[in-house]
Design brief:
Blueprint: H1 8-11, H2 23-32, E1 37-39, E2 50-55, E3 61-66, E4 74-79, H3 92-100, H4 102-106, E5 110-114, H5 123-141, E6 146-152, H6 154-167, E7 168-169, E8 172-173, E9 178-182, H7 188-207, H8 232-243, H9 254-267, H10 274-292, H11 312-318, H12 326-336, E10 346-351, H13 361-372, E11 378-383, H14 393-409, H15 415-429
Parallel strand pairs: 4-5, 4-6, 6-9, 9-10, 10-11
Antiparallel strand pairs: 1-2, 2-3, 3-5, 7-8
Helix pairs in contact: 2-5, 5-6, 7-9, 7-10, 8-10, 14-15
């Protein structure tokens, strides 16, 4: 077993995160997997590429793409973002990821991506699924000279966990040679999502329609009661009703403008992501707290001081407060929080104005590696962008090349060196670099209201 143990109190819960970092189980599942079937490659891939799709035997669908004349050099195992879908695994997800990350194959690397075995939250589960896919790849396509992990958004947290569980084997380097984390949600489930509890309570203070006064009350950390029939479309209508966020500014009432400004200024998110963040704090919260954590709350806001509105004193006196359940905190941390126990190079890329995953998550991740004594294995790079899901082909190729040069030649890159490499690639991949080699993010506590822990 390479899974760090869950506290006994949390392990005794009947609902968990399907954590099973068991070598024999993985090997058995890999041997039981059916061979992948060759499929037509999507048009985004270069001519001559070969594509395959299959199922891993435990519920995940995967896609594999090989570049033309591939020589078993480099495989990139991709872990996707989310987890917005909370039901069964969506088979089309891996194909969508292959289309989005087609530049990986254009750069000459093999690519493999999995849907994960189900939707909803579960970082260690997803790490298991990524490692199972790597083994399936080796079984059917052979070994590679180098194997990289690439995780984006929530998938960056998955890739970080995969590196901790599988890239380090009894103190030695395992099957992964390096890790690229992009637009990463890297604080672990407790720290990554507690600002969305802040959003729920601040939104409810100003809007009072989620839930409405004539609807059954419930603690907001639940997201929604299990039996609720609220839809995403209805949630969006309620947000617009309160704030006018889906209408031009000129069509918003003064009250809507005031409420919207207060919410955004306190939580520090752009208005274009307000509905999306509230949806995560509603539907994903329901999945995570009630299905994965047995009805327990992993987020607390007792002691948090909210700032930014014109009535902060009234807000802090009247906002709903919830203590975190220590067992839920321990269980969620065991599943998702990074430990820094890695021994392979890690390169990160993050937009400084990322509207979905705060750039300050990078400071939290660096602090973890510093405490673990492994920060020398981390190089962080940043770009002058206000995007989350995709930051431009050229940047990713530059990051992959810099990571491989670090692995193969021992040339640990600097942010400036990565920026220069990126500029050199623009004639081929496009003028999208906008790297900021001198940038260093502020602590996460400067973005999210601190609270006693």
């Amino acid at each position: 077993m390479r899974c760090f143990p869950i506290l006994l109190a949390a392990a005794a819960m009947t609902l968990a995160f399907e954590v099973q970092a068991d070598e024999r189980a993985l090997d058995t599942e890999v041997m039981a997997a059916a061979p992948p079937v060759q499929r037509a490659c999507p048009g985004e891939l270069p001519s001559g590429a070969l594509c395959f799709a299959g199922q891993d035997g435990v519920g995940s669908t995967y896609w594999v793409a090989l570049p033309e004349a591939w020589n078993h050099d480099v495989l990139v195992v991709h872990t996707h973002g989310g987890p917005a879908d909370t039901g069964p695994a969506r088979p089309s997800r891996a194909l969508e990821d292959l289309k989005r990350w087609a530049v990986t194959v254009k750069a000459g690397y093999a690519w493999a991506g999995t849907t994960y075995r189900r939707g909803g939250y579960g970082v260690t589960m997803a790490a298991e699924d990524a490692e199972r896919l790597r083994r399936i790849f080796v079984r059917f396509f052979g070994t590679t000279r180098r194997t990289l992990l690439h995780g984006n958004s929530y998938g960056a947290g998955v890739a970080a966990k995969t590196a901790e569980l599988f890239a380090t084997v009894d103190g030695r380097r395992g099957p992964y040679d390096g890790v690229l984390l992009t637009s990463g949600v890297l604080g672990g489930g407790v720290r990554d999502y507690e600002f969305r509890l802040d959003l729920r309570v601040v939104y409810q203070f100003f809007c009072r329609n989620h839930p409405r006064p004539d609807e059954p009350a419930y603690p907001l950390w639940m997201g929604l009661p299990k039996e609720s029939t609220l839809t995403r479309a209805e949630l969006a209508r309620r947000v617009d009703e309160c704030t006018g966020v889906r209408h031009p500014v000129a069509e918003r009432t003064m009250a809507q403008r005031s409420r919207l400004a207060a919410i955004l200024d306190v939580i520090r998110i752009p208005e274009k992501t307000l509905v999306a963040h509230l949806a995560w704090a509603t539907f994903l919260f329901r999945d995570l707290t009630q299905i994965r954590l047995g009805g327990r709350n992993p987020w607390g806001n007792v002691g948090a001081t909210y700032q930014g509105s014109e009535q902060d004193d009234v807000l802090n006196a009247g906002v709903l407060r919830y203590p975190a359940d220590p067992a839920a905190v321990a269980q969620l941390a065991a599943d998702s929080a990074p430990t820094g126990r890695v021994n392979v190079p890690i390169l990160t890329l993050h937009a400084v104005d990322d509207p979905t995953a705060f750039v300050e998550f990078e400071s939290a991740y660096r602090a973890v590696l510093e405490r673990a004594g492994t920060a020398d294995l981390l190089v962080q790079t940043f770009s002058d962008d206000a995007e989350h899901s995709y930051l431009g082909d050229t940047k990713y190729v530059a990051e992959f090349q810099a990571l491989l040069a670090w692995i193969d030649q021992g040339n640990k890159p600097t942010p400036l060196a990565v920026a220069q490499r990126c500029l050199g690639l623009e004639p081929r991949y496009g003028a999208t670099c906008r790297m900021l080699p001198g940038y260093f993010p502020a602590p996460l506590e400067s973005r999210v209201a601190p609270r006693p822990r």
